[in-house]
UniProtKB/TrEMBL annotation:
Subcellular location: Cytoplasmic vesicle, Secretory vesicle, Synaptic vesicle membrane
Keyword match Thylakoid: no
GO CC, one annotated term: synaptic vesicle membrane
Name of the protein: Synaptic vesicle 2-related protein
Taxonomy, superkingdom: Eukaryota
Entries under SUPFAM superfamilies matching the protein: MFS general substrate transporter
Annotated segments matching region Disordered: 516-545
Species name: Uria aalge (Common mure)
Keywords: Cytoplasmic vesicle, Membrane, Synapse, Transmembrane, Transmembrane helix, Transport
Length: 545
């Protein structure tokens, strides 16, 4: 009697949509069906260097690309594990190390009797380190792999974070915290690695949910400070805050290298092994046949960010990231100033009283201060939820534009002499939307750049954000002493321009798969394979509006 078995047939389109059905198949092999329309395509290089003729370079039953495999395998156990590990990097290597700045500064101000400018320099030096290293980490990730760049940056931050706890004098801790900032500059590469393993439909939501880990990390840091600072002091706080990085460093050995990067670098066998591993963990069938390798390119080249296709995207994104960090950290500083004064109208008189005091006068953080820090952090959750709800409905560009516009509008409303309760509401709404806009930028940036320059593009954008973070203390603290209203106009105007810049971005990535190559003809080939699939509409360029 012949043996019959039921096997799963995977049907997937080049657009990233996938569906599964159980059918009776006589043979014992999986069948892969790719829906598409024949088009005149450029030759595609295979593993042995041979080129497939144009007439055979379109989707067939025995060829697939990494994008097809990721979409066909879908979201499952592997992505859940990756989400937790990426979130741990975000919480321990980013949120906690940034949150500690607001706790460490007043403590050293009192303990070492530092003048105000030296206290401010402790914060600025971290941003200097991040700004100077962001592009470097992006280049390393494009040249040597996402996992490699991420592991080095985490170990770097762990090492210098622990050493910071043993700093004997101010000059030492200034240098060590700057080196910690240098390592933190590589954290955004975790988003690059994460995004390249996510199916299209889950990508935006998953990257946005990383913001939850940011909030968890900051809350954990504040709670740790409440327990450690009164008894053990700031040195132990620095050491204990770095220890979660050790856990992430161990878990890094579980992380696979990006299959998209392996394909681009010519390591086809490793990419296939990674895809098989994901399919096994998710309990999904692995597409059979030849894995098509995109034409190999030089990776991590700055000039690729300024090709005619990406020039305006890069410049506009740099300004958007600058405005995000400039406004976000500026709002954090302004919140403290406004709350101490009671309302905007009385802040000038409050400033005059402060000027009369000695510059070395200090106050240790109280339990009420830590409570305010917690409430400020929790205000970001509504922003994540709103962004999560609208980003796949109205698109990435409009989401960023809306976030900037709401922040700008709330800043203008602060011109009114409102009470403390209304002031709190306006500040929290503004922070919720600017943090949501920041996360929308983290979704958009990895999607808009091809694999060859994805990490570098995200790294340079992150570097521009640090420039904004460096400048904003001079506006939120120095300019505020001269004019409250001029300060608010600067922030409101900057975000209004950023909203316009978001609208003028030439590429909308909503509903678009991650691009494998920056070559124009390769991008056209990908569109030709997917743009005529049933039930899918796409513009002729695949991305231009």
């Amino acid at each position: 009697n012949p043996c019959f078995c039921i096997l799963r047939v995977v049907k997937f389109r080049r657009t990233g949509e996938s569906s599964r059905s159980d059918e009776d198949v006589i043979s014992g092999e999986h069948e892969i069906q790719i829906e598409g329309v024949r088009t005149e395509l450029e030759p595609v290089e295979l593993e042995d260097g041979a080129a497939v003729p144009k007439e055979f370079a379109n989707p067939t039953d025995d060829t697939f690309m990494v994008e097809d495999a990721v979409e066909a395998i879908g979201f499952g156990k592997f992505q859940w594990k990756l989400s937790v590990i990426t979130g741990l990097a975000w919480a321990s290597n980013y949120a906690m190390e940034m949150m500690i700045l607001s706790i460490l500064a007043p403590q050293l101000h009192c303990e070492w009797r530092l003048p105000s400018w030296q206290v401010a320099l402790l914060t600025s030096v971290v941003f200097v380190g991040m700004m100077s290293s962001s592009t470097l980490w992006g280049n390393i990730s494009d040249q040597y792999g996402r996992k490699t760049g991420l592991k080095i940056s985490v170990l770097w931050t762990l090492y210098y974070g622990i050493l910071s706890g043993f700093a004997p004098v101010y000059s030492w801790i200034l240098v060590l915290r700057g080196l910690v900032g240098f390592g933190i500059g590589g954290v955004p590469q975790s988003v690059t690695l994460y995004a390249e393993f996510l199916p299209m439909k889950a990508r935006a939501k998953c990257i946005l949910l990383i913001e939850v880990f940011w909030a968890i990390g900051t809350v954990f840091e504040v709670l740790l400070a409440v327990l450690v600072m009164p008894t053990l002091g700031w040195r132990w706080l620095l050491i204990l805050s770095a220890l979660p990085l050790l856990l992430f460093a161990v878990l890094c050995f579980w992380l696979p290298e990006s299959a998209r990067y392996d394909v681009l670098s010519g390591n086809q066998e490793k990419a296939i092994a990674t895809l098989k591993r994901i399919a096994t963990e998710n309990g999904a069938p692995m597409p059979l046949g030849k894995l098509i390798i995109s034409r190999q390119e030089d990776r991590g080249k700055m000039k690729d960010l300024f090709t005619p296709h990406f020039r305006w995207t890069t410049l506009l994104l740099w300004f958007i990231w600058f405005s995000n960090a400039f406004s976000y950290y500026g709002l954090v500083l302004l919140t403290t100033e406004f709350f101490q004064a009671g309302d905007v109208c009385s802040i000038s008189s409050k400033r005059k009283e402060v000027k009369a005091k000695c510059s070395l006068t200090c106050e240790y953080l109280t339990e009420e201060d830590y409570t305010d820090l917690l409430w400020t952090t929790l205000s970001e959750f509504p922003g994540v939820l709103v962004t999560l709800w609208i980003i796949d409905r109205i698109g990435r560009k409009k989401t960023m534009a809306l976030s900037f516009f709401v922040f700008s509008f709330c800043s203008l409303l602060l011109f009114l002499c409102v009470g403390r309760n209304v002031l709190t509401v306006l500040l929290f709404i503004a922070r919720a939307f600017i943090s949501g806009g920041f996360q929308a930028a983290y979704v958009y940036t990895p999607e808009v750049y091809p694999t060859a320059t994805r990490a570098l593009g995200l790294g340079t954008c992150s570097g521009m954000a640090r420039v904004g973070a460096l400048i904003t203390p001079f506006i939120a603290q120095v300019m505020l002493e001269s004019s409250v209203y001029l300060t608010l106009v600067v922030y409101s105007g900057c975000c209004l321009l950023a909203a316009v810049a978001s609208c003028f971005l030439p590429i909308e990535t909503k509903g678009r798969g991650l691009q494998e190559s920056s070559h124009k003809e390769w991008g056209q080939e990908m569109v030709g394979r997917g743009s005529h699939s049933p039930g899918v509409t796409r513009s002729n360029s695949g991305s231009q509006e």
